[in-house]
Every structure is written in C-alpha cells, then in structure tokens.
Amino acid sequence: MSKPTYSDAEWWQLVKLQQQIAEEQQDALAKVMHLECQESLLCSCAGDFIAHDYKEIAELEDLECREKEESECFEKERKAREEQENLQKQGKDIEYNAQLASMSDDPSLTQMMNSPSFWENFDSAVTGGIPSPTGGNQSSLQ
C-alpha cells in the first residue's frame, strides 16, 4: 500500500484549521468563564434583593407592632379618662344626694350642724338666747 501524499497547500490548510479550532476553543472557554462570572454576580444580587426584602418585611412588622402598642396604650388612656370622669360624676352625685338629704323634713344632727343657719344662731344661744327655727333670735330674758 502506498502512502497518500499531501501537498504543501493541503498541509498549510490543515494547520490553519487546527489553529482556528484552538482559537474557537479559547473563545468558547472565555465565554463560559464570562457567563460563570455573570451567573455568580446575579446570584449575589439575588441574595442582596432577598436580604433587602427580608429587612423591609422585618421593619414593617416592627412598625405594625409599635402601632399596635400605641393603639393599646391610647385605649388604656381613654378607659382611664372615662373611669375618672365616671368617678367624678359619682362624686357629684353623692354630693348632690347629700345636699338633698340635708333638705329633708327630718334632718340628722350632722345635717343640722352643716347648716349655716344653725351656726348663725349659735352665738346667741351661748349668751343665753334660744335659736329660733325661723332664723330670728329670741332672748330668754324677754
């Protein structure tokens, strides 16, 4: 069998094709490395986005919690004011009832002593006068 013979032009064409393949492999490898770098960068950015979203969610939850606490505090203050107003009203009612009781037909000794007319006549009673139920003084010496 005879060996095939190649011309110089065919030889140079073969070498040229091998160089083109080597260059294309290098270009492909560079492109793959570039794509891997981009993929890594995108993964990092995605992680940053997720962390940022998580932080915003946590801040919103904190804000909602503070708003709830403020609302509860406001409600407690409102109830305390209402309770104080009710106590003041009850105090006024008790005072009013005491005034009504002091005006009854059969007053107690305390009610009589709280009456200004009782004390108006007191000095004259000590000096010998007798207090009049109408407020005028009658002297026992007359």
TrEMBL record:
<protein>
    <submittedName>
        <fullName>Uncharacterized protein</fullName>
    </submittedName>
</protein>
<feature type="region of interest" description="Disordered">
    <location>
        <begin position="76"/>
        <end position="142"/>
    </location>
</feature>
<feature type="compositionally biased region" description="Polar residues">
    <location>
        <begin position="99"/>
        <end position="118"/>
    </location>
</feature>
<feature type="compositionally biased region" description="Basic and acidic residues">
    <location>
        <begin position="76"/>
        <end position="95"/>
    </location>
</feature>
